[in-house]
Design a protein that fits this description.
- The protein is α+β, with helices and mostly antiparallel strands and 157 residues long.
- The protein has a domain of 96 residues.
- It contains five helices and three strands, in the order αβββαααα.
- α1 crosses α2.
- The chain starts with 6 loop residues before the first helix and ends with a helix.
- The structure holds zinc ion.
């Protein structure tokens, strides 16, 4: 989810993410899978667009920042503890967000896994580091990977 994201790109990523979720991570799907209706559904991302900034801070508050393009694959369901509320997100968000917490799916090839991680802006190294952090093997995500640290220390300071 790094880098500038446009609405057409979000739609394209969601179209690619949905079959991956259905095939490899069905546990991540919520009650419903549907296509976004014009101006009726919501994403939770910062979108790069050409709309003029409309406040002094220079942030754009155009519809692009709320609504995915019509036809963008969405996932939604009731969630919450004390009170159930409707919650929805694009298929891209559902996949990219969860990749930070889950391991490669069974039966997924290395090539498929690399492609899926790339959709979320991650490399296999990024993912391995997150898993090590979740397991408590490294204290911080800022910790250099052993390889990088070895290279940095190789200067003989
Ligand atoms: Zn806009």
């Amino acid at each position: 989810m790094r880098g500038p994201l446009t609405l057409p790109r979000l739609k394209e990523l969601s179209e690619r993410a949905l079959p991956i979720l259905e095939k490899h991570f069905p546990e991540l799907l919520q009650d419903q899978t549907f296509l976004a209706e014009p101006s009726d559904n919501y994403h939770g991302l910062v979108i790069q667009c050409d709309c003029p900034p409309d406040d002094r801070a220079g942030f754009t508050k155009c519809d692009c920042q709320w609504h995915p393009l019509a036809g963008t694959p969405m996932i939604g369901g009731m969630s919450g503890y004390e009170e159930l509320e409707w919650d929805e997100e694009t298929a891209h968000e559902a996949l990219a967000k969860n990749l930070e917490w889950i391991n490669r799916a069974a039966f997924m090839t290395e090539a498929e896994w690399i492609e899926v991680l790339a959709m979320a802006g991650m490399t296999p190294d990024d993912h391995a580091k997150r898993m090590a952090w979740l397991d408590g093997e490294i204290a911080s995500l800022d910790t250099p990977t052993p390889t990088a640290a070895g290279l940095a220390d190789g200067g003989g300071r």
